């Protein structure tokens, strides 16, 4: 059932998205597509610091498949704005349900509720970007805790209406899904409402991340 | 009569139009700053909005005598940024846009 909903979501051409949240009253949608982990998420910023969203995800490392749905909440704990930089702490978490195979008992079907609390720190100037996040994904006999590090720089500064290119190095570990740290050099393009990233990881897996704010 | 109406329209829009320069902290990328532009553009009296990332300011041109400072601050804070200064300027948003885009 979850797989069916996920496929339906991916087939909708208008659903593109991915950043924690947008400005008050906005809807932010994002998608991450890669071999081992894909998701699609939409959230609504009901005030300046908080958003509520829905996420569908698919994990697959050839031996283990997970399809899940999650209702989540994002809260900006702290933001420091200066003339040339912005630093944030985000607290997020969700509850959801996932299905998959249960390898420990001969591929028996697995279905479990899960919780997914997480914390993120990010820092950005017009030329430098860094992000560290850790999220627990825990259910019955399930642990897909996810750690992500991103760091990079923009090639040059641009005006508000121009497309700004960045180089970002992303390192990800998803417990039980990625066997080690998956490192993906990516090119990021930002043009106002649209945010696009693409790269190929050290394991040869292409990855695309798209985000759009309405 | 037609000329008088045109003159009246010109005078009233000239008298009540105001351009405000809003200096903003934290505006580091266009993806984030679009919230400011979208929110200010929704205001009924807004004629034009110009966002300058490089210098960290926003120009708001209104058809009346300008938006109240507390309302501007609320919109900017709701977009995730901090206001450091609001001042009135003589030029229109388009004139300022052209000044900076020439450079």
From TrEMBL, chain A:
Protein name (record) = DUF481 domain-containing protein
Give the signal peptide range. Answer: 1-18
Q: Which UniProt keywords apply?
A: Signal
Look up and give the organism this protein is from: beta proteobacterium KB13
From TrEMBL, chain B:
- Tell me a Gene Ontology molecular-function term this record carries: metal ion binding
**SUPFAM superfamilies in UniProt:** HMA, heavy metal-associated domain (SSF55008)
Pfam families, alphabetized: HMA
What are the boundaries of the signal sequence?
1-17
InterPro entries assigned to the protein according to its UniProt record, in alphabetical order? HMA_dom, HMA_dom_sf
Task: List keywords of the entry alphabetically.
Answer: Signal
Q: Which CDD domains match?
A: HMA
Q: Which residues form the HMA domain?
A: 18-84
Tell me which Gene3D superfamilies the record gives. 3.30.70.100
Designated name of the protein:
Heavy metal-associated domain protein
Lineage, opening ranks: Bacteria, Pseudomonadati, Pseudomonadota, Betaproteobacteria, Nitrosomonadales
């Amino acid at each position: 059932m979850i797989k069916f909903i996920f496929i339906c979501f991916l087939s909708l051409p208008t659903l593109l998205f991915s950043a924690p949240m947008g400005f008050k009253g906005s809807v932010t949608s994002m998608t991450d597509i890669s071999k081992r982990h894909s998701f699609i998420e939409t959230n609504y910023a009901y005030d300046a610091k908080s958003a509520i969203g829905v996420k569908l995800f698919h994990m697959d490392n050839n031996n283990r498949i997970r399809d899940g749905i999650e209702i989540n909440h994002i809260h900006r704990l702290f933001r420091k704005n200066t003339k040339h930089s912005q630093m944030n702490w985000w607290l997020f978490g969700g509850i959801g349900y996932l299905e998959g195979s249960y390898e420990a008992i001969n591929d028996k079907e697995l279905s479990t509720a899960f919780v997914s609390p997480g914390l993120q720190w990010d820092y950005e100037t017009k030329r430098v970007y860094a992000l560290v996040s850790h999220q627990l994904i825990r259910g019955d006999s399930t642990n897909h805790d996810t750690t992500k590090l991103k760091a990079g720089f923009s090639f040059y500064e641009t005006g508000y209406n121009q497309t700004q290119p960045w180089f970002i190095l992303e390192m990800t570990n998803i417990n039980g899904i990625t066997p080690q740290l998956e490192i993906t050099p990516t090119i990021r393009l930002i043009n106002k409402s649209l945010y696009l990233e693409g790269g190929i990881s050290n394991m040869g897996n292409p990855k695309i991340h798209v985000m759009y704010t309405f | 009569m037609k000329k008088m109406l045109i003159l009246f329209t010109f005078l009233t829009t000239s008298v009540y139009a105001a351009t405000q320069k809003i200096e903003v902290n934290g505006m580091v990328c266009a993806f984030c700053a679009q919230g400011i532009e979208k929110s200010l553009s929704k205001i009924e009296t807004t004629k034009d909005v110009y966002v300058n990332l490089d210098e960290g300011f926003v120009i708001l041109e209104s058809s009346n005598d300008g938006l109240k400072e507390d309302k501007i601050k609320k919109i900017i804070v709701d977009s995730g940024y901090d206001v450091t200064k609001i001042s009135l300027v003589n030029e229109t948003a388009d004139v300022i846009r052209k000044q900076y885009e020439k450079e």
